[in-house]
Amino acid sequence: MLGPVILAASRSDRMRRLVSAAPVTKPVVDRFIPGETVDQIVPIIRELTDQGLELTMDVVGEDITTPAQAEAARDAYLELIDRLKPLELGTRAEMSVKLSMFGQALDGGHELALANVRPVVEAAAGIGTTVTLDAEDHTTLDSMFAIHEELRKDFPQTGCVIQAYLFRTEADARRLADSGSRVRLVKGAYKEPAEVAYQQRHEIDKAYVRILRTLMEGEGYPMIGSHDPRLISIAQELARTAGRKLDEYEFQMLYGIRGDEHLRLAAEGHRMRVYTAYGTDWYGYFMRRLAEKPANLRFFARSMVSKG
Known about the structure:
Elements: H1 2-9, H2 13-21, H3 25-32, H4 38-50, E1 54-59, H5 67-84, E2 93-97, H6 109-126, E3 131-133, H7 141-154, E4 159-163, H8 169-178, E5 182-186, H9 201-217, E6 221-225, H10 229-242, E7 250-254, H11 259-267, E8 272-278, H12 283-292, H13 294-307
Parallel strand pairs: 1-2, 1-8, 2-3, 3-4, 4-5, 5-6, 6-7, 7-8
Helix pairs in contact: 1-12, 5-6, 6-7, 8-9, 9-10, 12-13
């Protein structure tokens, strides 16, 4: 199983230096992260939305060690929102945020993250869109869910992410579905111990379907975060069974993976949102994309051989 090895490498400073210095890295990274600045990403936003796709934008970066860095992350999102305003895309371009970027792991991190993310959520609402709080490792989730609940008091469209491989997620899904929340369901991309998470792919897939059924039958808005053709078909069937219209749920996939499928689903009338990351601190995000799917790792390996 290479996935856990790659996830461990995503936390290694030595591996970060080696991968970042490799001449072949940037062309491969560009497949998943199409820009480092707002100026570079705005044309990508225009291109994707012109194709009938929607977006959730992620300013990459996780290793926050000071309050000043957390404030800089907040300001990066505020800059993005300012640049989105004249495009008048509304909810066709939302934001995804990791609370670790907003200082969650620092002293007093829960309060600091809430204080930093609130103006981002408020600014997003001001241009007619919203924010989804990304899930990180299991130790951060109680704080994330508490911040999500607090933000929804004033901004009820604020979404959150749940991860199918965690044992706790079925209960979290029932609570969120009952409260009418926007919820993105993913399989999970962090290295979690067997005490808290399923380790086998077939167990994770079965949990994903159980949780998705709960979301489809609930009062909220399900967002299906998966590239798996079988799970996409199951999601469509669950939506039909639950009586959901095409605008009452959506699919979400990563930029750079299965682009033809993005367009196919959009052409069929589905809401298809592309998770699009940008920024200079790309290493952790990139390594998790390699760990999620063997094909991504093979793509990277072939590039290293052909360019080496």
